Amino acid sequence: MQTVHESRRVFPFVTENALIKRINRVLVWRAQMLIKSRGAREKLKLGNWYIIDLSSGDNDRYAVIRHFIDLEALGREVGCLRSDNAYRPCFEHRDATSGRSIGTANG
Fold first, then answer.
1. Pairing state of beta strands 101-105 and 91-94?
2. pLDDT more than 70, % of the chain
3. By the 8 A CB rule, do 27 and 80 touch?
4. Percentage of the chain with pLDDT > 90?
5. Taken in order 50, 79, 13, 25, is the CA torsion positive or negative?
6. How many CB atoms lie within 10 A of CB 20?
7. Taking a C-beta distance cutoff of 8 angstroms, is the pair 70, 61 a contact?
């Protein structure tokens, strides 16, 4: 007979969206949140991902406490990504002629 731990499904990879949700569930206990940069200027200043301190909020302005975040490294650091899980980023496909988004793919 299988034990509870033996019968659990093991997923070989974790998608970007799942990893972001896992990280934010941990960070909320520290009054922090992982944010994705919008726009070229913000990406140059903060990188693709950064963390804000929710306890320092004043009229929707929060202190940035970490920037240029590597999602996989942060996931492993906070314990959201185990050693047997691999991170698989999502890529958005765009139609070459119109530039419209036609969905996401995981590899």
1. antiparallel
2. 73
3. no
4. 50
5. negative
6. 20
7. no
Query: For residue 67, what are the contacts with CB-CB under 8 A and spacing of at least 6?
Result: 45, 46, 47, 50, 51
Question: Alpha-carbon distance 32 to 76, whole Å?
Answer: 17
Q: Where are the alpha helices (DSSP H) in the chain?
A: 16-27, 40-46, 71-78
Structure tokens, 35: 């944010």
Q: How far is CA 95 from CA 39, 64, 69, 104, in A?
A: 20, 35, 29, 12
- β-strands 13-15, 86-88 pairing: parallel
Count CB atoms within 10 A of the CB of residue 21. Answer: 13
Please report which confidence band the pLDDT of residue 88 belongs to, taking 50, 70 and 90 as the band edges.
confident
Amino acid identity of 100?
R
Instruction: Tell me the pLDDT tens digit for each residue of 52-61.
Output: 999 887 767 8
